[in-house]
Each structure stands twice: as structure tokens, then as C-alpha cells.
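W.,

You were right to be curious about this one. When I first looked at the sequence I had no strong expectations either way, so I just let the prediction run and decided to look at it fresh. Below is the sequence, 245 residues in total, followed by the output.
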Amino acid sequence: MYHIWTGFNSNHSSASWTCSTLNANGRIATTSDILSSGWIRALGTNGFYCESYGGGWHMTDSTWIRAYNDKQIYTASTSPDAIHTLGGINASGRIYSGSYVELHGGLVCAGVGNSGGASGFNVYGSFYGNASHGGIEIGASNNVLGIGVHSNDSWYIWWTNSGSIGSSSNKSYIFSYNGSSWNFTGSVVASGEVTAYSDARLKSNIHTLDYRGRLIPRHYVKDGKQSIGFIAQEVQALYPELVLG
């Protein structure tokens, strides 16, 4: 082994150096790469540092690899697996996405995201669309249920059993509300009471059905509540078009 010592600040050699250990009390400067077939090790809280931009990687405990000077982390990869973890991602602040967030598992919201919603309603998750509309869809196989709001002061529910998330094919609105009217597509079946106001001033084109027999109003108890009305089976026997099921 050869030992080279000099009082100057730098050495120059056009020949390759081979040694088992190199100790330096100052910097080792090179205009090329440092290539190692083993580890490049740092002691204490030191690590890798990019002097031109003031950032790098280091550790201050046995758990976390830290970005030095709190630099941001960036990758230009467009792969859906650009950042991969076998565990979770824990963020003390927001997680932003320039595109959609795809989850192959579930989404669990623990805690209140905004306790100052409308008159103190607790908001556990917020979803935003564009200036015209916003909504979310839930899918299982080719069954898709969606709910959304529109800038025309209405909100909607849509459904399909032969479609996919993100596509409008085979989907139709099954419900909409515009602030005054509830509009349903299909039949509405209620296991409880349905209260509706009947006023001749709200109706037109009124016709009388042919008389088929007398309907008798009944007193009855349903769900522990005393009520007055007609029995569906008795109505169906005389006027089947008025009874569903």
C-alpha cells in the first residue's frame, strides 16, 4: 500500500488509485462520478447533500428518512405505481391530485373534515367538481350509482346495471330535486305512511271513474299508530289500477 501526503490543497494523478481505506480530514472533490460496489455510509445526522440547491436526504433517528431542509419530493413518472408502499400514507395536511384518485380498496374518513357546514352539520368528506357540476359514483361490477349537483340549482341520482364508472352509457336519472319538486323515474314504494296534499286547485283534466262498488273507510292500527284510511286489498278488488303490487 502506498501513502501519499502533501501539504497542498489538492492532488492530481492520471493513474488509478487502489486502497483498502481512505481517510480524509477535508473534502474529497471530484469532477466525475463516485462509484461504489458497496454502501456509501454517513455517520450521525449526515447524509446526501446537493450543495447547488440546498437539499438532500438524511436521518435524525432510526425510523424516518428525511428530506434535508424540508425540500419537496418530485417524480416525473406517469406510472400509476410511481410511488408505492406496502403500508399506508399518512398526511398531516391535504393530499392533492391533478387527476382522479383511484382506490382499489375502500375509502375511510375518520373524523370531521369541516364542523362548520350548514348550521353546524359535520362534514366528513368534501368532493368538488367544475363550475357546472360535481358528483361521485360508486360501482360494483357493472352496477353504478351516482349522485351529483348542478349549477342549475338541482341535484340528481343516476343508476345503471350495465355500465361503468366515468361513462354515460346506459345511465339514466332516477331522481332529481330542483328546490321545490321531487321527481322520480319509476315507481315509489313506501313501507310507512305517505302524506300528500290533494287540492282540486292543483289538478286539471279531472275525470270520474266508473262506479264499481262502495269503498268503506276503516279505522286501523299500523306500526302502533291509530289511522283512518282504506285497505289496499279492498281497493284493489274494485279499482286494481289504483294499487301497485
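Here's what jumped out at me. The beta strands are 47-50, 55-58, 66-68, 133-140, 143-150, 154-160, 172-177, 182-184, 218-222, 225-229. And, maybe more interesting for your project: The first strand starts at residue 47 and ends at 50.

Coffee later to discuss?

I.
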